[in-house]
Amino acid sequence: MQKWEYLIVFIKDADLPVEDAEADRYLDADTFTERLNTYGQAGWELVSFEWLEKGAKAALKRPIQA
User: Is it the case that residue 62 has pLDDT exceeding 90?
Assistant: First the structure.
């Protein structure tokens, strides 16, 4: 039977005011994508993703290497 290990991470947002005309509205999405891609390259698979007030929480899993 396959066994799994799990990882819960918090990805903090950029804390830029939404009203700021100079703010890059895609900065946070890029940050989240980069972090999740880094975990994916390490063998982690995204199981759930939840937006929070100051960022997001992600749960990841990967097979335990025997």
Answer: yes
